[in-house]
Amino acid sequence: xxxxxxxxxxxxxxxxxxxxxxxxxxxxxxxxxxxxxxxxxxxxxxxxxxxxxxxxxxxxxxxxxxxxxxxxxxxxxxxxxxxxxxxxxxxxxxxxxxxxxxxxxxxxxxxxxxxxxxxxxxxxxxxxxxxxxxxxxxxxxxxxxxxxxxxxxxxxxxxxxxxxxxxxxxxxxxxxxxxx
Amino acid sequence: xxxxxxxxxxxxxxxxxxxxxxxxxxxxxxxxxxxxxxxxxxxxxxxxxxxxxxxxxxxxxxxxxxxxxxxxxxxxxxxxxxxxxxxxxxxxxxxxxxxxxxxxxxxxxxxxxxxxxxxxxxxxxxxxxxxxxxxxxxxxxxxxxxxxxxxxxxxxxxxxxxxxxxxxxxxxxxxxxxxxxxxxxxxxxxxxxxxxxxx
Lengths: 180, 199
What we know:
The complex is a heterodimer. By secondary structure, chain A is mainly alpha-helical. Helices cover 72% and strands 0% of the residues of chain A. The radius of gyration of chain A is 43 Å and the shape is rod-shaped. The model of chain A is unreliable at 74-90 (pLDDT under 50). Chain B has helices at 3-15, 20-41, 44-61, 71-88, 107-113, 120-138, 142-152, 158-165, 169-189. The model of chain B has no long low-confidence stretch (mean pLDDT 83). Chains A and B meet through helix 1, helix 2, helix 3 and helix 4 of A and helix 1, helix 2, helix 3, helix 6 and helix 7 of B.
């Protein structure tokens, strides 16, 4: 044990040994060894105040102090290296997931606003048109075709079409089918 | 592991309720802090009280210490502030003080400015301890003397000493320990060793 205490003086003990050494240093004789080793070093370096020792008085005074408890940082709880690496990937994945969710949301909102309904209505109108048109209604066919042409010609100016090109193609197909 | 890492782990232990671990840091740094405090207040008889107060303040503030700086740098600032507060409450002695910056880098300069911060008894005791230690080192086997000298005077790590002495790190560790034990035995025989824990 004393050899571990000697290594502690030099900061050369392993992390695993520190637990053991700290427990041993609660014994006054082991703490005295630690104090002797530090004093020997100070003497060899020619330092002054070699007889100075307030450790007993300080520790006696601390008995009247409340025990310190500090909030533990996350790195100290789970190990700095592995945890810091894990947290990096978790943070990056979270950012990526949030960005993806945002893109999906915007896409869903935009697509839900595209004029799919008018096309469906137009297509259903075309399908529902009877093959034989009565003579009275036949006169309305030409204005309706002309109306379709008018819509096709001006649909780029429509304010409710978010996807102009796509809408134009859909209408063109519908118009062709109608013409057929 | 180095000194700073050791201190960090000790601080972690204290922050989780191990009050005794603070005693290790007190033993480790009390002389360094005493020299700084003595250099500021220039009163050898009050140094002990101010250093004691500085350590207690450090303990109270330890919950806020986040290891952003080295523990001793943090303790140094507390020691300087405690000494300044002591001076402020003892205005008559202000003219005797020297200026001290907050930076730890000025530590050596401060101590060099003051040679009269020890009582004659302290100086005599220090002289006797130094003589005993030097005599004990001279009697050590060469490999133990070299190992402990490279460590304590030159500040080499165990690995560096192992390289210099062409020995395994474990052997270096053992030699330094046995050297310290031999010197401590000599100090005990002359009554200079720490007697606090020995009945």
